[in-house]
Design brief:
alpha+beta, three-stranded antiparallel β-sheet, two-stranded antiparallel ribbon, about 25% strand, globular, binds iron/sulfur cluster
């Protein structure tokens, strides 16, 4: 299953990956600062929880953490990787 990996040390919340994803499985966090996964599509809820606990309330520059989200609906087109201006998102096959 494809894994979408966010590097929160690099993510600037630019929203480019969200806008580029053809299957709409990425989103910005509630506070608009970080990119994350659409919860209902994510297999590993632990990653969502970790995101909420460890990243969501931090400011840019404070989060030094990579989190993997397993996404069954990711078609591995890698458009998000190409769109990201910070090289903060990568796609990995499990
Ligand atoms: S690889 Fe494609 S389908 Fe998967 S998250 Fe990125 S843009 Fe969306
Ligand atoms: S495109 Fe990159 S920098 Fe922008 S929100 Fe997505 S992961 Fe973060």
């Amino acid at each position: 299953m494809p894994k979408v990996v966010f590097d929160y040390a690099k993510c600037s919340g630019s929203n480019d990956c969200v806008e580029s994803c053809p299957v709409d499985i990425l989103k910005l966090s509630e506070n608009g600062k970080w990119c994350t996964a659409v919860d209902k599509e994510v297999e590993n809820k632990e990653a969502v929880e970790k995101f909420h606990q460890e990243v969501e309330n931090k400011e840019h520059g404070e989060a030094n953490l990579k989190i993997e989200f397993s996404m069954p609906n990711c078609i591995q087109c890698r458009v998000c990787e190409a769109a990201c201006p910070e090289e903060a998102i990568t796609i990995e096959e499990d």
